[in-house]
From TrEMBL:
It comes from Acetobacter conturbans. It catalyses: lipid IVA (E. coli) + CMP-3-deoxy-beta-D-manno-octulosonate = alpha-Kdo-(2->6)-lipid IVA (E. coli) + CMP + H(+). Keywords: Transferase. Pathway: Bacterial outer membrane biogenesis; LPS core biosynthesis. This is 3-deoxy-D-manno-octulosonic acid transferase.
Length: 705
């Protein structure tokens, strides 16, 4: 039976109105998005995943892209940028089955963005989640990209739901957090939906991808993804004109082309003063700090004849002309700024750079890596004064630096306040703020805001770090990459390397580098397991703190009772054929060790039952730059972005048994170890232009001081 014309007319009329509405919205979005001048920024790994940059012979895999529901209308801009550069990309978007979802699906359909429906229908019925999950897994298995809004379709706003976490865990597919913003108006909806306006400027920011392994805590992954999504969205919302000139005119490899007006030079920061309570406490604690320094001296962590430097006392003469004060806390920070120092001196040989560190080890690294510059007086080293007001002021009066450059998370209220009072601009390179550090500073918000307001600019290493600096009150923050991906490979003494190779011969070797108390026992347990199948195995242990060499040697004797003595590098002993373990308890020789074996375990990461809590890992880029394949324990919070970027070049182990199995696999399958090591090397050496960009920015800051 056919329907009558009067029954069909309302249906046709409704359908016509629906098509007109879809056409109008599609036309407006197309006009607004295509006339916006977009700036695309991505971490190196996110960019490689979007453009399917793979090593030779590897296969493309699926990809999950996540953005907050509020940015749904802006998301086509990402595909329009990506598709010409990666024609093989096929995009699907997970959209609600309700009326609004179907409207959006029809709007974007002509743009080659097929929907996957499955969230909800009227009154929450017929969700179709199982069918949607099957479609998504099929699309991912075929190498397609699936876009998901983790807080949709009904919210709560900016709160990740569990579905995407479970999907990523089951498929092993990484999630790229994306933030999109442009000139717009916001709808008064639950998500504050962004509607773009034409002829404006916009930014697309792709943050560090999140890899979720089976067995990972889902709640932790959910919180982390939420943080990264919010950081990317907030970063995208930053006004491009707030970027310093030198970065605007020299985009990084992770910043795509796009017209951009050169911004003005950043204004001087607010003149911050340290909170009275902190100032008073530091002054009252000065006698106790002197006692603490003497205790450190007895433990070999200070140098007797240079202890006065920690009080700001110095009898040396300041060199004439401009002087940059560059502070690096310890070894990692010192190594990361070496390329910046070299660029600064290459651009202006008459410049003098004062480097302060907080550890003897870092001072040794500086002396070893820049001997000619130190001998010529271009680079000077001093131990940083503790953050007592009169000690810091005494230091500033003597050295009168032109500007201060802090690295990573070395933020001291009195130091920053004293520099502000002396009109010395303070900047931060490779800025890093962990979640725990953010929470700590939030307990003293007035102190944090006062300190952050005294910074001229902050070059954060990731969008997440940039967002955390802004949360504490820093104004001029931008993200330009991690200096640890731009450092040169660690150096090696050729004579020492040659002698070590002669002593080792053709024995299979693996290295446990930068280990901490409690880890050596687990490393030795793994070594005994591997030795069952590799009787001539040599395990090299390099403790992070060389003064622990004797303690480590004693542990070796406990694990291998038949061994009479344990060769220690500090005693100039080389391993003999019968020695199962060699303890390298000296400074600055990791570059040599990483050339002796490509199989490296990075310490300070393995959780030891009943032992001290690991400190968050050590820099995996150091071995990766030399083509080594890396294993780590699960505690990697200090270098989370680095471990994520290295992806398959790093293996996480939880027990001595897992560590032993990994070592055996890498020793037996040299082709696999080589391919993973090469993949890691490419990641760890990707952004070689970052030191140049930061050095030019420091020069500009210094000239404006």
């Amino acid at each position: 039976m056919q329907a009558s014309s009067d029954q069909l007319q309302p249906i046709e009329s409704h359908s016509r109105r629906q098509r007109l509405l879809e056409t109008a919205i599609r036309g407006w979005l197309s006009l607004a998005l295509r006339t916006t001048r977009w700036r695309f920024e991505a971490t190196p790994e996110a960019r490689a995943l979007l453009l399917q940059e793979r090593t030779s012979g590897s296969q493309s895999s699926g990809l999950l892209v996540a953005f907050w529901h509020e940015a749904l209308a802006l998301s086509p801009a990402l595909w329009w940028w990506t598709e010409p550069r990666n024609p093989a990309m096929r995009l699907h978007v997970l959209i609600s089955r309700n009326r609004d979802g179907r409207l959006i699906a029809n709007i974007v359909a002509p743009w080659r963005i097929p929907p996957i429906h499955g969230s909800s229908d009227k009154k929450g019925k017929n969700k179709g989640g199982a069918a949607a999950l099957r479609q998504i897994r099929t699309a991912l298995a075929e190498g397609h990209t699936v876009a998901v809004m983790p807080d949709g379709p009904k919210g709560p706003r900016r709160e990740v739901q569990a579905g995407i976490i479970a999907l990523a865990e089951k498929t092993g597919i990484p999630i790229i957090p994306v933030g999109v913003q442009c000139r717009c108006i916001r709808v008064r909806s639950w998500d504050r939906m962004i509607l773009p306006l034409p002829f404006g400027r916009g930014r697309i920011v792709c943050g560090t991808p999140l890899h979720i392994e089976k067995g990972d805590a889902r709640e932790t992954a959910r919180v982390l993804l939420g943080e990264r999504l919010t950081a990317a969205q907030d970063e995208a919302g930053r006004v491009a004109a707030s970027y310093p000139d030198s970065l605007a005119t020299m985009p990084s490899a992770a910043v795509a082309e796009g017209p951009m007006k050169a911004p003005h030079t950043p204004a001087r920061p607010f003149r911050a003063s340290a909170p009275l309570l902190w100032n008073l406490c530091a002054s009252l604690l000065a006698p106790a700090l002197i006692v603490m320094l003497r205790i450190r001296l007895r433990r070999g962590k200070e140098i007797a004849e240079r202890l006065r430097e920690r009080l700001g006392l110095d009898k040396s003469q300041r060199p004439p002309g401009p002087l940059i004060w560059l502070h690096a806390a310890s070894v990692g920070e010192t190594i990361s700024i070496l390329p910046v120092i070299r660029v600064l001196l290459n651009d202006e040989p008459s410049l003098h750079i004062l480097v302060t560190t907080g550890t003897v080890t870092a001072a040794g690294i500086l002396a070893r890596e820049l001997p000619d510059e130190i001998k010529a007086g271009q680079v000077l080293h001093r131990f940083v004064p503790l953050d007592v007001p009169r000690w810091v002021k005494r230091f500033l009066r003597h050295w009168q630096p032109t500007c201060l450059v802090l690295t990573e998370s070395e933020l001291w209220p009195n130091m920053i306040a004293a520099c502000n009072a002396a009109d010395v601009p303070v900047t931060v390179v490779n800025g890093r703020l962990s979640r725990s550090a953010l929470n700590g500073w939030r307990r003293v918000p007035r102190m944090a805001k006062a300190m952050m307001s005294g910074l001229s600019w902050v070059a954060a290493r990731s969008p997440e770090d940039a967002a955390r600096f802004r949360m504490l009150g820093a104004a001029n923050v931008f993200c330009d990459g991690d200096l640890k991906t731009a450092a040169a490979p660690l150096t090696a003494d050729p004579d020492v390397l040659d002698d070590a190779r002669k002593a080792i011969g053709t024995r299979p070797v693996w290295i446990a580098a930068s280990t901490h108390s409690g880890e050596e026992a687990r490393v030795l347990e793994a070594a005994k397991i591997v030795a069952a199948t590799h009787p001539d195995l040599l395990t090299i242990i390099a403790p992070r703190h060389p003064e622990r060499g004797k303690m480590v040697a004693d542990e070796v004797l406990s694990a291998f009772p038949s061994v009479g003595t344990v060769p220690r590098r500090a005693q100039a002993a080389w391993p003999k054929a019968q020695d199962p373990v060699w303890v390298v308890d000296t400074l600055g020789e990791l570059g040599t060790l990483f050339r002796l074996s490509p199989v490296i375990f990075m310490g300070n990461s393995l959780v030891v039952s009943g032992g001290p809590t690991p400190g968050g890992g050590h820099n995996p880029f150091e071995p990766a730059r030399l083509g080594c394949v890396v294993a780590t324990g699960p505690a990697t919070g200090n270098f989370e972005e680095a471990f994520v970027a290295l992806a398959d070049a790093v293996t996480v182990v939880h027990t001595p048994q897992e560590l032993a199995k990994w070592v055996e696999t890498m020793l037996d399958n040299t082709a696999l170890a080589t391919s993973r090591g090469e993949a890691g090397r490419k990641v760890a050496t990707r952004d070689q232009m970052l030191p140049l960009r930061l050095a030019r920015l420091i020069h500009r800051t210094m000239s404006n001081a």
